[in-house]
């Protein structure tokens, strides 16, 4: 009788839609432990999704987890961008994506220069939910920008963490 096992799965070149939306890899791992009246398992899956803009492909890393043991069930999800990108690059790529020319002009939407040159350094969202006696929920949001001000980059970082445990709620917003 099989009481413990681990299965790992990797799939490459999962999906490619006209070089505009690509899932290059998908990986999953399943861990199972059973016997003596208990059954525990954990599933972890992760992938990188590439939105194939002309100038700067946007890569989003995603992770999902599910874990069940005697104490309850926990599931979590997180996602983040894989590299920095400027607002102007995003707007140029959107113009190219929606047919505003093969090589759109710089700043095609006439954004003020300080907005066009603002760089999105990181963006992340994660949440976790635990069911059972503890009944918890955790949500975290992170954002990092580089704002060009008078020839210098000013870093703006936001971090917010919301938590619920039982009937109690909590909110923190310290530096990451």
Describe this structure in words.
Strands 1, 2, 3, 4, 5, 6, 7, 8, 9 and 10 form a ten-stranded antiparallel β-sheet that branches. The protein has one domain (4-172). Strand 1 (4-17) and strand 2 (21-35) form a beta hairpin. It has helices at 87-97, 113-116; strands spanning 4-17, 21-35, 38-51, 58-69, 72-81, 85-86, 119-132, 136-149, 152-165, 168-172. The model has no long low-confidence stretch (mean pLDDT 81). The protein has two helices and ten strands. It is mainly β and 176 residues long.
Write the layout of secondary structure elements.
Elements: E1 4-17, E2 21-35, E3 38-51, E4 58-69, E5 72-81, E6 85-86, H1 87-97, H2 113-116, E7 119-132, E8 136-149, E9 152-165, E10 168-172
Antiparallel strand pairs: 1-2, 2-3, 3-4, 4-5, 5-7, 6-7, 7-8, 8-9, 9-10
List keywords for this structure.
single chain, 176 residues, 2 helices, 10 strands, 9% helix
- Which descriptor suits the 3D outline? flat
Strand content: over 45%
Rounded to the nearest angstrom, the radius of gyration is 21 Å
The main sheet comes to: 10 strands, antiparallel
Structural class: mainly beta
Relative helix content: under 10%
Q: Count every helix, treating DSSP H or I runs of 4 or more residues as helices.
A: 2
Q: How far apart, in Å, are the first and last alpha carbons?
A: 47 Å
Can you give the mean pLDDT? 81
């Amino acid at each position: 009788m099989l009481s413990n096992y681990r299965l790992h799965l990797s799939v490459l070149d999962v999906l490619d839609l006209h070089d505009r939306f690509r899932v290059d890899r998908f990986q999953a791992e399943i861990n199972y432990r059973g016997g003596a009246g208990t059954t525990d398992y954990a599933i972890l899956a992760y992938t990188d999704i590439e939105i194939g803009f002309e100038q700067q492909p946007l890569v989003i890393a995603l992770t999902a987890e599910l874990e069940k043991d005697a104490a309850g069930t926990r599931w979590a999800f997180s996602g983040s961008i894989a590299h920095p990108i400027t607002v102007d690059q995003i707007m140029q790529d959107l113009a190219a994506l929606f047919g505003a020319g093969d090589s759109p002009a710089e700043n095609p939407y006439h954004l003020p220069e300080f907005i066009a040159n603002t760089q999105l350094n990181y963006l992340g969202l994660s949440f976790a939910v635990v069911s059972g006696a503890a009944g918890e929920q955790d949500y975290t949001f992170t954002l990092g920008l580089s704002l060009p001000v008078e020839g210098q980059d000013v870093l703006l970082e936001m971090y917010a963490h919301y938590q619920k445990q039982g009937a109690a709620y909590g909110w923190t917003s310290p530096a990451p």
